[in-house]
Amino acid sequence: MKKNIVISGVSSGLGKELAKKFISLDWNVIGLARNTEILESLSEELGDNFSFYAVDLQDEEGVLSAFDYIDTQLNHIDVIVNNAAVFTMKPFLECDFKDINSIVDTNLKGVMYSTLKAVEIMKKNNKSGRIINISSVAGIHGIENQAIYCASKFGLNGFAEALNQEIIKYNISISTIMPGGINTPLWNEDNPYPGGDTKQLLQCSDIVNTVEYISGLEPRIILKNLTIFPSNEWH
Fold first, then answer.
1. How many other CB atoms are there within 10 angstroms of residue 47's CB atom?
2. Contact by Cβ (8 Å): 180, 233
3. What is the pTM of this model?
4. Which helix (H) or strand (E) covers residue 157, if one does?
5. What is the Cα 135 distance to its own chain's centre?
6. What is the pLDDT of residue 79?
7. Interior angle at CA 104, CA 34 and CA 133, nearest 5
8. Taking the chain (235 residues) in consecutive chunks of 10 residues, what is each chunk's mean pLDDT?
9. Are 46 and 24 in contact (CB under 8 A)?
10. Spatial distance between the Cα atoms of 182 and 40, rounded to a whole number of angstroms
11. C-alpha dist (Å) from residue 57 to 17, 105, 123, 227
């Protein structure tokens, strides 16, 4: 039986590279993202093992519909990668309520929505399962001009720490990866990389290989937290 993986934020960057990797491993991949047009293009590129559901993780009803679809299509989930995130780098006093809601609702509440439904499916249909959260070094210490983002990632890490203890009895576990700067479209003129030299950034493949490794572990092994960052940073 083929293994099944759900990946959020699949339309670009790390999420897209994760989809490509697991397709190459002959897994069934369901990608979640907001842009239907990009998802359709990605489906044509990746082939029959890729399916998708267009959803904004801030939308409660949308997430419910997405996981109803996943339950019908796949019947079981081996791994879910909570990768989708919103990032803005600017002083907190220049932010507004919209910034707070967008970041917290996607990075924290959206992950909690998805995880709740994924665990229900895993518990019902699986003998085991893995949740892999793509957090950030911003979840282990505060970073200037990233107060809301840090709050969302600190919350994500605390959520995983507590939930792991509840679901381990079902052979379901959470691994939290906390990367430093990754070479993705996240860094641009609006969000310049604080480290300066973007050539030193982590590559998507560094994180993809880590997710692949965790996904291949036996259920008796838990890799709880992993911090990984480029050599021009220190966390």
1. 9
2. yes
3. 0.95
4. helix 147-167
5. 7
6. 98
7. 70
8. 95 96 97 97 96 97 97 92 94 97 98 98 90 97 96 98 96 97 78 74 95 96 96 88
9. no
10. 26
11. 20, 8, 22, 25
3-state secondary structure of 199: helix
Output the six-digit token pair for 226: 């992993």
148 Cβ contact list (under 8 Å, min separation 6): 88, 92, 95, 99, 100, 103, 104
What separation in angstroms does the CA of 225 have from each of 107, 116, 140, 179, 181? 18, 20, 11, 11, 17
Look-up of token digits 């803005």: 88
Cα separation, 49 vs 97, in Å, equals 40
> Where do we find the tokens 């590279």?
17
Written as six digits, the tokens of 200 are 């030193």
Instruction: Provide the total of helices (H) and of strands (E) in the chain, helices listed first.
Output: 7, 7
What is the sign of the dihedral through the CA atoms of 119, 128, 69 and 27?
A: positive
DSSP state of 134: E
Residue 9 pLDDT: 97
Helix (H, G, I), strand (E, B) or coil at 133: strand
Predicted pLDDT of residue 16? 97
User: Which phi and psi (to 5°) does residue 231 adopt?
Assistant: -70, -10
Q: Which two tokens stand for residue 128?
A: 């085991």
Dihedral pair phi/psi, residue 146, rounded to 5° = -135, 35
Q: Which residue has 């499916």 as its token pair?
A: 121
Residue 53 phi, psi dihedral angles, 5° rounding? -140, 125
